[in-house]
Specification:
mainly alpha
Length: 123
């Protein structure tokens, strides 16, 4: 608990160390890294979808090929779109997790500052 209050045996409060802030920073960085990767993969899926949908309008392809593959292309594009929606959800969740980690890091930093100021006041 990052609250100024009684510490020690029998109390739920913890004295936070610089390690605690560093660990929160580590997890915030990892979460932001995951967001970047998910966003890049989202863009790749979008490009892949656009490519396959554009095959329908390609003049160089025989009409027979377009007619036979139209349904398959539509199905594939739809599945990619579903995956892209899943990526959007995961990106939103990861961004929220990064915000939570940032808030906790700030709270732990403030608790450390408060603990240090209590020590200075006591001394």
């Amino acid at each position: 608990m990052a609250v100024i209050g009684p510490r020690g045996p029998g109390h739920a409060h913890k004295q936070y160390l610089p390690y605690d802030v560093q660990e929160l920073q580590y997890w915030q960085d990892k979460t932001n890294e995951a967001v970047m990767i998910l966003e890049a993969n989202f863009d790749v899926l979008g490009s892949l979808r656009r490519f396959y949908v554009s095959l329908r309008e390609l003049r160089e392809l025989p009409q027979e090929f377009k007619e036979k593959c139209d349904n398959d292309i539509s199905t594939f594009a739809s599945r990619i779109e579903n995956n892209m929606q899943d990526f959007k959800m995961q990106i939103s969740r990861a961004k929220l997790l990064a915000e939570i980690a940032s808030g906790r890091k700030e709270l732990v930093s403030c608790a450390r500052c408060g603990f240090v100021s209590q020590l200075v006041t006591i001394a």
